[in-house]
Amino acid sequence: SHSFEVRMQGFGELRSLVHRRPTPQAWKQLCERLETYEPPLLQQALLPYVLSHLDATWPVGLRILPESWWPKLVLNPEQPMFQVVRRVLRYDCTYAELDALLQAPDLQRIRRLELRLRPMGHDIARILTQAPGWPDLEHLELSALGLDDQGIARLAGSPILQNLHSLRELDLTD
């Protein structure tokens, strides 16, 4: 049907982006292209293809949640395009961003999480203990948490750490 052809326009470009040599620039272009698709089309037709190629050939370190996606994440944590992300890096993370990050079902496959939190006056340990747990997480870096011993103990018992079967690096420096 005509509407399907219209919706599939740009798939060739998406395919070529996925097959390019992985670079920060190629990643940026791929993410910008993903933003142009309707979520149902992305979820059903495009993501399985894109993810199989990214997972096979793109390094985790490059697959960072783009700067431009943070406002989108806060606005709506449920967006299929987030599924391509494997690394979350934020040096000035706000409470709203942290909250959205913890709620985002499409960020469940992240493998590296590096956050430096803005002073929040919230109980960070309590917030993090409600995190869904990222089963593939290998590297967790949380700085400027301002945790006391009790907070660290609570974080240690939280699902976010219990589910970390593959955790290799943990950094909780202030």
Give a brief rundown of this model.
The protein is an alpha/beta fold. It is 45% helix and 12% strand. Strand 1, helix 6 and strand 2 (112-117) form a beta-alpha-beta unit.
Structure notes:
By secondary structure, the chain is α/β, with parallel strands linked by helices. Helices cover 45% and strands 12% of the residues. It contains 9 helices and 4 strands. Strands 1-2-3-4 form a 4-stranded parallel β-sheet, with helices on one face. The longest helix has 19 residues, at 39-57. The protein starts with a helix and ends with a strand.
Shape: elongated
Number of strands: 4
Radius of gyration: 17 Å
The number of helical runs is: 9
Could you report the average pLDDT, rounded to the nearest whole number? 83
Question: Helix proportion of residues, in percent?
Answer: 40-55%
What letter string, H or E per element, gives the SSE order?
HHHHHEHEHEHHE
By secondary-structure content and strand pairing, the structural class works out as alpha/beta
Distance between the termini: 57 Å
Major sheet: 4 strands, parallel
Query: Spans with pLDDT under 50 lasting ≥5 residues?
Result: none
What are the defining features of this structure?
174 residues; alpha/beta; four-stranded parallel beta sheet; 9 helices; 4 strands
Topology:
Layout: H1 2-8, H2 11-19, H3 24-34, H4 39-57, H5 70-75, E1 87-93, H6 95-103, E2 112-117, H7 124-129, E3 139-143, H8 149-156, H9 159-162, E4 169-171
Parallel strand pairs: 1-2, 2-3, 3-4
Helix pairs in contact: 2-3, 2-4
